[in-house]
Amino acid sequence: MKPEKFLTIGIDIDGTVTSPSSIVPLMNESFGRDLRYEDCLEYNLANVYQITDEEFDNWLAQNGERLYDEAPVHGIADQVLRNWYPLHKLIYISAREAHHHDVTLNWFARYQIPYHEVDLVGSHDKLAAAQKWGVDLFLEDRLENALQLSEALQIPVFLFDTPYNQARLPELVHRVTSWEEVDHKIKTLSLGQARV
Questions:
Q1: 47 and 136 together in one domain
Q2: Does residue 2 form part of some domain?
Q3: Is 178 found in the same domain as 85?
Q4: What is the 3-state secondary structure (H, E, C) of the chain?
Q5: 40, 163 in Cβ contact below 8 A?
Q6: What is the mean pLDDT of each run of 10 residues along the chain (196 residues)?
Q7: Domain match, 129 and 47 both
């Protein structure tokens, strides 16, 4: 008999399971720039690259498939997620569009990253999906999402440290620098200790 899952973990994909720097080389190639990941001090890359939101949306529509196919894994995310899978319910909630479902699942298969559900919501507003799946905590790289989810749902959010999400954080949002660190914090939660 399989053990009951301990936690339902909401997990962003881009910049969380995939390396947060993976979009920069592709954008440099397309826009003839030589920016570094460290130069991306805000989440809105249209501002960073000094292009319009429409130009960025058009670029993503043309290059999204390649971006999602070629993105490297963020650190040891694949190993950690394989270890969590028998213990926790893994729900990936991403702003990716639904038509990127196949490339997303193929990428997960290539890196042997397990999942219970993959919900591509097509928007940065992940609140309804997080409520639908009843997540106990969330892993994210976008500051605005972390703030919204932690406040609305009163759940812990682990925010992966990036140049574009620097700010003072409320009590429920915990900055983490690696998958090793978030793994340790989840183990602490799983043991029933109140503090993260």
A1: no
A2: no
A3: yes
A4: CCCCCCCEEEECCCCCCECCCCHHHHHHHHHCCCCCHHHCCCCCHHHHCCCCHHHHHHHHHHHHHHHHHHCCECCCHHHHHHHHCCCCEEEEEECCCHHHHHHHHHHHHHCCCCCCEEEECCCCCCHHHHHHHCCCEEEECCHHHHHHHHHHHCCCEEEECCHHHCCCCCCCEEEECCHHHHHHHHHHHHCCCCCC
A5: yes
A6: 76 98 97 96 96 97 97 98 97 97 98 98 96 98 98 97 97 97 89 48
A7: no
Residues 6 or more apart in contact with residue 27 via CB below 8 angstroms: 33, 35, 45, 49, 59
pLDDT score recorded for residue 151: 97
**What would the two tokens of residue 21 be?**
């720097």
Check whether residue 158 and residue 179 sit in a common domain.
yes
Beta-bridged to residue 116, according to DSSP, are none
The model's pTM is: 0.94
Domain range enclosing 119: 8-19+74-190
Question: For position 139, which CATH number holds?
Answer: 3.40.50.1000
The length of the chain, given as a count of residues: 196
CA distance 7 to 39: 36
Question: How many domains is the chain partitioned into structurally?
Answer: 2
Residue 46 within any structural domain of the chain: yes
Kindly state the tokens that stand for 85.
């899978």
